[in-house]
Amino acid sequence: MSTPYSFQGAVWVPYLSLVLLALAVKPFPYRALFFLPIPPLTAYVLRSTTGNFNTDYVLGLMWLLLFWFASDYILLTDVQRTLRRVPPNRTAAPQKVIENASLWHRTRWAVVLLDSPRGVGWTHESTVLPAHPAAGTSRAAFIVQRLWKALQLFIIHDASKLHQRWNPMFTSNRPGRRAEGWMWRAIVVTGWCLSSYSTVSLMATVLSVFNVACGLSKPEEWPPFFGSPADAYTIRRLWGRAWHQLMRRFVSTHGKYLAHRVLGLSPGSNTSAYVQLYTAFAISALIHHGAETMALRHWRGGALAFFMLRPCAIMLEDCLIFLGRRAGIKGGFALRLVGYAWVWAWFTLTLPIWQEPLMRGGHMDESLPVSIILGLWRGEWVLRSW
C-alpha cells in the first residue's frame, strides 16, 4: 500500500454529522444523497494511521461498523417511518413514527438509534438477545451486580493475558500457532477466545454502569452483551445466539435486500436463507479485513478466508443435522457435548488463519498495565514490559 496519511480525529465530525443529518431530516426522495461522501471518507480513513497497531485496528472496526449501519439506515431503510422505540416498561404500544416531530426531537431520536446497535429498546430488537434486567431493578443493585461482573471479567482477562505473555506462540517473532502442534494450538485458541470475550464484555459492562450511574438510562435497558456459552454447541448458534449481535441488524437488511429485491428469491426458501447467510458473513469479512488492512498496511490478512469459511461450516452442520433427524437421531446431552467439541475443533482449525497475520503485526504485544493475579501472588501490581 502507499504511504499512509496521519489520521486526523476531526474527520469524525463530518462523518457523524452526515449520518445524523440523514437520520434526522424528514423523509424525502433524495435522502440517499447523504451517503455519497461516506465512501470517500472511509477510503481516506482506511489509508491513514494513528501510529499504533491496535488503535488502527479498533479505529477501522468502529469506522466500518458505522459505514454499514449508514448503508442500512440511509440507503435501505425508511428509518423514521419503520423504526420505532419501545417504552421502557415494554408493555405499552410502541411509540408513534417520529417524522412529524420537531427537528430537535428527531435529532435526539437519531442519536439514540445510532447508540443502539443491537436495537435494544426498539421494535427491531432481536429476540435472541439475553433477557433484560427485571423492570424496577434499582440503580444501586444493578451497579453492584455489574461491578461484580466486571471484576470477574477482569480476572478472566488478566489470566488470559498472563498466558499470552508467558506463551511465546503469541509474540510477533514466532512462526505461528500452527507450528507447535495441535494440543498447544487448541490451548492458544482457547486463550484468545477468553481474552476477546472478556475484553469486549468488560467494556460493555463498564459502559452500562456508567450510563446507569449517571442517570442516562435505566437498568432494564442493559441486557448482557453476550448470550450464554451453553448455546454455542453449533457454529450457527455460536454466532447467532452466544456472540454479541452488534452486526445482526445491518447484515440482515443487506442480506434480505440482495436475496429478495436483487435476486428475486422467495422469502422463506432455502436458497434465500443461504444467500442471506453468505451475505452476512461477507459483510463481516469485509469489516474485519478493512480493519486489519488499515493496521497491517497490506492486503494479506486472513479475515476474508476465516469469515467466509463460517457459512461453509454452517451449511455442513445444517446438512448433518438434517440427516440425523431423518435417521431418527434425537438431541441430548451427549450430542451437545459432541457439538461443543465440533465448535472448538473448528476454531482450533481456522482461527489461526485470521489471527496469525495480526499477531505477527503486533496485535498481542500490548496488554492492560496492571494485574490483580500477579499483584496478589507476587505483589507485582504493575506489569513489566513485554
Report on the structure:
With 386 residues, this protein is an all-alpha fold. It has a domain at 5-114. The chain has 13 helices and two strands, in the order βααβααααααααααα. It has helices spanning 12-24, 38-46, 53-76, 79-82, 103-114, 139-166, 182-213, 235-242, 248-262, 270-296, 303-326, 333-361, 372-378; strands at residues 5-6, 48-49. A two-stranded parallel ribbon has the order 1-2. Helix 1 (12-24) packs across helix 5. It is globular, with a radius of gyration of 22 Å. The two termini are 29 Å apart. The mean pLDDT is 89. InterPro entries: Wax_synthase, Wax_synthase_dom. It holds the Pfam family MBOAT_2. It is a multi-pass membrane protein. One of its GO terms (molecular function) is O-acyltransferase activity. It is found in: Membrane.
